[in-house]
């Protein structure tokens, strides 16, 4: 943003930096979980390649959050894991920042966001169905229909696990489909190259054949011409009258 007329640009930059620094400190003070190191560790923990498939999990935000809440959450989290703030571990910070940035951009895309919401909803519906089946079996057995998923926190964890499983399964299928498509493209390319090489060989063969054919025709004509001359010579020799021997007189 340009500085206002008559305003020192350096003072504006200093003000922005101070606001940035203040915001960082407020975030860190508000919740000890949101420290830079802990967030980087969370985003790069073992299995992160699958955990981070859920953009809402990456940003630690409710799927029903508004766009404004999403924007604020992204800013807060990106500040914490930004490489500039974590110069003692810039490489891991960069990877964590990229995960946050990717999740945010995905949720900015309405179509991608809908897909993520559909997966979460499918996970929830699955758990609800399993709970219903559990209660039905307990009722059939004449037992209490109380299940551990009646506890909201346990239910939430069950949905979380199922959602992660669904995201992972979709990612595995995506990779398999991508690998298959890559293999098919590679095979098609190899066939294309082979066809081109075969066509080249055929053209070269045809060219060589035509060139050698001209040579063979010339050789044949030469051979025929020589044969004709030889035959004519023989014929002339055969038709030549014999020499008359003169008689001697006594």
From TrEMBL:
Keyword list (alphabetical) reads: Acetylation, Chaperone, Nucleus, Phosphoprotein
Task: Report the subcellular localization.
Answer: Nucleus
Q: PROSITE patterns annotated for this entry?
A: DNAJ_2
- Residue span(s) of domain J: 54-121
Q: Does the keyword Metal-binding apply?
A: no
| Any one of the GO CC terms | nucleus
**Keyword Zinc in record:** no
Q: Where is the composition biased (Basic residues)?
A: 226-237
**Entry superkingdom:** Eukaryota
Q: Quote the Pfam families the UniProt record gives.
A: DnaJ
**Amino acid composition bias (Basic and acidic residues), ranges on this chain:** 177-219
Q: Where is the segment annotated Disordered? A: 132-153, 177-250
User: What task does this protein carry out?
Assistant: Suppresses polyglutamine (polyQ) aggregation of ATXN3 in neuronal cells.
Q: How does it assemble?
A: Interacts with SRPK1. Interacts with HSP70 (HSPA1A or HSPA1B).
State the name under which the record lists this protein: DnaJ homolog subfamily C member 8
Q: Give the lineage.
A: Eukaryota, Metazoa, Chordata, Craniata, Vertebrata
């Amino acid at each position: 943003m340009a500085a206002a007329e008559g305003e020192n640009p350096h003072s504006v930059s200093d003000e922005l930096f101070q606001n940035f620094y203040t915001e960082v400190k407020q975030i860190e003070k508000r919740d000890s979980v949101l420290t830079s190191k802990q967030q980087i560790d969370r985003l790069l923990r073992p299995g992160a390649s699958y955990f981070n498939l859920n953009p809402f999990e990456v940003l630690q935000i409710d799927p029903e959050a508004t766009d404004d809440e999403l924007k604020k959450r992204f800013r807060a989290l990106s500040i914490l894991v930004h490489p500039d703030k974590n110069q003692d571990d810039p490489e891991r910070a960069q990877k964590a920042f990229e995960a946050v940035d990717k999740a945010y951009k995905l949720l900015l895309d309405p179509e991608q966001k809908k897909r993520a919401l559909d997966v979460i909803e499918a996970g929830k519906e699955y758990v609800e169905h399993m709970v219903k089946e559990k209660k039905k079996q307990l009722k059939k057995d004449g037992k209490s229909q109380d299940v551990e998923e009646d506890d909201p926190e346990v239910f939430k964890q069950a949905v979380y696990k199922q959602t992660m499983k669904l995201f992972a399964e979709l990612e595995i299928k995506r990779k398999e489909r991508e690998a298959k498509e890559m293999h098919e493209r590679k095979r098609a390319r190899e066939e294309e190259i082979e066809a081109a090489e075969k066509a080249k060989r055929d053209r070269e063969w045809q060219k060589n054949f035509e060139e050698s054919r001209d040579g063979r025709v010339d050789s044949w004509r030469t051979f025929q011409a020589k044969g004709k001359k030889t035959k004519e010579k023989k014929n002339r020799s055969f038709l030549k009258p014999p020499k008359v021997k003169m008689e001697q007189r006594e």
